[in-house]
Amino acid sequence: MSIYRIILLVSFSILTINATWAQSEPDFAEAGQAAARRLRELIRIDTSNPPGNETKVAEYLKTILDAEGIEAEVLELEPGRGNLVARIRGNGKKKPVLLMGHTDVVGVDRDAWTVAPFEGLIRDGYLYGRGAADDKGGVATFLEVFLLIHRQIARQGAELDRDVIFLAEAGEEGTTQVGIDFLVEKHWDRIESEFALNEGGNTRVEDGKVKFVGVQTSEKVIRRLKLVARGSSGHGSIPRPDNAIARLSAAVAKLAAFQPPMRLNETTRMFFRTLAATSAAEDAFLFQHLADPEIGSLVEKTFRESERGDFLLYNSMLRSSIAPTIVEGGFRNNVIPPVAEATLDVRLLPGEDLDEFIAEVRRVIGDEAVEVEPLPAYRPAGLPSPLDSEMYRALDRAREAVFPDAITLPFMSTGGTDSAQLRSKGVKTYGVDPPASDEDAKGVHGNDERIWLDGLGPHVELVYRAVMEVARAR
Amino acid sequence: MLRRMLTVVVVGLIFVPVARGQQGPDFRAAGAEAVARLQELIRIDTANPPGNETDGAEFLQKVLEQDGIASEILEKEPRRGNLIARLKGNGSKKPILLMGHMDTVGVERDKWTVDPFAAEIKDGYLYGRGAIDDKIDVIAMLQVFLMVKRQGLTLDRDIIYLAEAGEEGGPPVGIDFLVEEHWEKIESEFALNEGGEIMLRDGKVNYVGVQTAEKVPNGLKLIARGTSGHGSAPRIDNPVVHLAAAVAKVGAYQPPMKLNETTRTFFERLATISSEEDAFLFRNLEDPVLGPLIEEKFRQARSGAYISYNSLLRNSISPNMIEGGFRVNVIPAEAEVTLDVRMLPGEDVEQLKAELRRVIDDEAVEVASYDWVQFPAAPATSLDTELFRALENAQAAVFPGTITLPTMTTGATDSAKVRAQGVQAYGVGTVRTDEDEARFHGNDERVWVEGVEKYLEFVYRAVVEVAAAQ
Closest Cα of chain B to A252: distance in Å? Predict the structure, then answer.
């Protein structure tokens, strides 16, 4: 107790000194602690989706913003599914920058948690709770950055060349129609921007140190396909040559043997180049020889057939991927069913044409009795955000200032985020997340989700520096 | 009123043959009596589940009482009665068992155009659930039993009548119960059961099918195991993929052709009543050059008889249920398929499993037994028996100019349970068309009224030939 008080006192005194020192920077350690306190409050508001109830969080955030004199509005498509938007005005010379995070969380399997998921327990330097990392940690840190910018302006009379918008959105976990889709369609004027920062990054901690700052600049396009094989029904005692299950199986087996071609883009090329520079010699060799005319295909095979999770991920980053995940057909063992179905989890590379891909899948299957149908797409296909942009460079410089021993690693994620909706509207969107270890990452959508408290201050600083660099009046 | 008149007529007819003493039975009258009784039995709903076969057994018990024949009802579970009666012979030969099952499958009422339990007669057909499967046999065997009794014949062997419960699936309240707990009540040398047919094509009897063998239902399961993971990063040990590859191989795999006494005779005799083209196929199945082509022709057939011949020729495998995965973005740890396997009599399923392991050639895929049915590996019944010859003689007498066709069915009947005990069981059945056959377990099930009399005569002659004192 006394130690905590001492830290508070020390922090307070530093803050006081800073305030008197006109051109000073904010106290990021204090900002990190403030973010942690607010994150704790956010975790205590259960916004498991379904049902969501994000308005409760939006109202909490609004109270904080009101207290700082920042106007905020809560926008709802459906009752209780509120999105909060607030704006710090700039001089309008440039288009805005958007800081966004989502306030809903996935549900919990309570029995599998060893701590209460909605209490915000702090233990051994970690804050535990559903949403700690995904994505209330993002919301709390972006809010902190937003407040710091607001205070800096108020205190120093500084000017911004562009508006900074803060968005805490609802419904990211499976119901984007009440969140980002609603905002893009009905309130685009409120969030229209040149740049955006969102979740989806990967700032990796190893042995208590940040090793790299992974900036998500692109993501694969999730498109689910359904295979429907048809045959004639009959009695199981008399096998039929057009058995739907046998046909479906042959189709799935052919698809599994089929590898869509490797295609590198700006992000993945830079990703592997950067990774090679910091990897052990054996791994570096692989990263450097992906496009090698003689052994490239062997490198690809090494990734594809690996037991290593990172290599499997790299395999998926290299190509449009197909994973058959569900098969179903039949209802009684003595009845040949007329239909059997498989669902494929397909992740296209950005820029890939779905219709052409489906045509290729049909060609590989080569059986007209097997239909290939796309399931409804959940997110639009966004193009990669460039590495050669003001924001990316600002992030890289901020990383240099905050984590000088780490590297900036641009990457394409194999999963989807709401950045896709923004990118499809032309917003250059980058994913940056608070620092986390491999172990911490397991809690996302899992059990005992947590966030590393010591990482919050530096993360706030990194984001603050990057945003100020692109937004500060020049 | 009309009903009462009919009853009077029927009763009158019954006494005619008896009055005539040693003259043969009046099959016309017996047919009418049987049809009337079949109507009554259909009106007793014994759809299984729940069965309630005791309702049917009690009805049969009263009928037997009228002819002074004692019977007993044996229940393993309440209301699941089996009825047994016996006509004593002099014991010089072992008994013959006449059996049928009283339970029926259920009905989808809205798909029937007639009341399935009203037993309506329309355009020469008697309609109702169980009309052909298998209340006709319950009644026909009963009628033959009564005819033998009324004829006052001296018998070399006992004739046992059995109306059993629980044939259409569910707990073992029927034949299994009797075999295990009351074997002495039904032990016999020969048995006649459902499973055959007198096939009517183009208005004429085409052949008399006698079931002498049936394939043995078996279940196998292929279980593929791998590592669960996220759908965004494909894995080479994805169990859905391994399973698919295995099923694709099994689907393409054709177990070797093996003919037995029944199927060899079947194709030989079938050739004599077939078109020239078909006869050529049936006669050249074992030809080293043509055989494989003919097998493929059967295998690739989409419908009709050929496709069932394919199953007669070999152990058959049909993948009928596949399941794996629960969320589109999660690669599951396991996926499985169940195979409906029908073994030829005398074949070893363990050998087939070993063969499938070789075909699949993937250690990630387990080939396991799947006990969805419990059928003993029953041997085929011999064609070289007194009863088979008697059936052939009966066919020649009642349906001259046609043939007796020994058949192996791809589906299973309770004959398997008695064959496994060493009983020479034969499947017979009443006169029917392909259209009637298609209504088995289906809608508007029916039996051709005019054929019943001929069916009775056929069975009666065969039974008397093997049972009457020589």
Answer: 6
Q: Between the CA atoms of A252, A254, A255 and A257, what dihedral angle is there, to the nearest 10 degrees?
A: 120
As a whole number of angstroms, the distance between CA B86 and CA A16 comes to: 110
Residue B47, classed as helix, strand or coil, is strand
Confirm if B190 and B426 have CB atoms less than 8 A apart: yes
Note whether B402 and B414 are within 8 A (CB): no
Residue B168 and residue B440 in contact, taking contact as beta carbons nearer than 8 Å:
no
- Reported as half-sphere exposure (CB side, CA atoms, 13 A), residue B82 has a value of 28
Residue B275's CB is within 10 A of a number of other CB atoms, namely: 9
Question: Exposure string (b/e) for A66-99, b if CB count within 10 Å is 16 or more?
Answer: eeeebebebbebeeebbbbbbbbebeeebebbbb
Using a CB-CB cut-off of 8 Å, the residues of chain B touching A318 are none
First to last CA, chain A: 45
Reported as a pLDDT band with limits 50, 70 and 90, residue B22 is: low
Asked if B333 and B228 touch (Cβ cutoff 8 Å), the reply is: yes
**For A51-76, what is each residue's pLDDT tens digit?**
999 999 999 999 999 999 999 999 99
Residue A110 φ/ψ, nearest 5 degrees: -50, -40
The helix/strand/coil state of A49 is: coil
Are A316 and B327 a contacting pair at CB < 8 A?
no
CA–CA gap between residue B227 and residue B378 (Å, rounded): 41
- Residue pair A305/A194 in contact (Cβ under 8 Å)? The answer is no
Task: Give the model's confidence band at A278: pLDDT under 50 very low, under 70 low, under 90 confident, else very high.
Answer: confident
pTM: 0.85
B414-443 pLDDT, tens per residue?
999 999 999 999 999 999 998 998 888 889
Strand B316-324 and strand A321-329: pairing?
Answer: antiparallel
**C-alpha to C-alpha distance for A169 and A82, rounded to whole angstroms:** 7
Q: Could A241 and B302 be called an inter-chain contact, meaning their C-beta atoms sit closer than 8 Å?
A: yes
For the record, the structure tokens of A137 come out as 């940690």
Please give the interface size between A and B, counted as residue pairs whose CB atoms are below 8 Å apart: 187
Cβ neighbors of A372 (< 8 A, separation 6 or more) are A225, A226, A227, A358, A361, A362, A365
Q: Which helix (H) or strand (E) holds A215?
A: strand A209-219
* Alpha-carbon gap, residue B216 to B294, rounded angstroms: 24
Euclidean distance between CA atoms B197 and A129, whole angstroms: 71
CB nearest B231 (choices: A245, A256, A323)? A323
Does the CB of A261 have a partner CB in chain B at under 8 Å?
no
Residue B381, both tokens = 């019944």
- Coil, strand or helix at B82: strand
Q: What does the pLDDT look like over B237-262, one tens digit per residue?
A: 999 999 999 999 999 999 999 999 99
Backbone angles phi, psi at B71, to 5 degrees: -150, 165
pLDDT one-digit tens code per residue, A2-48? 344 444 444 444 444 333 334 578 999 999 999 999 999 999 999 99
DSSP string, B360-374: H--TTEEEEE--S--
Contacts of B332 in chain A (CB under 8 A): 325-326
**CB A324 to CB B241 under 8 A?**
yes
* CA B398 centroid distance within chain: 22
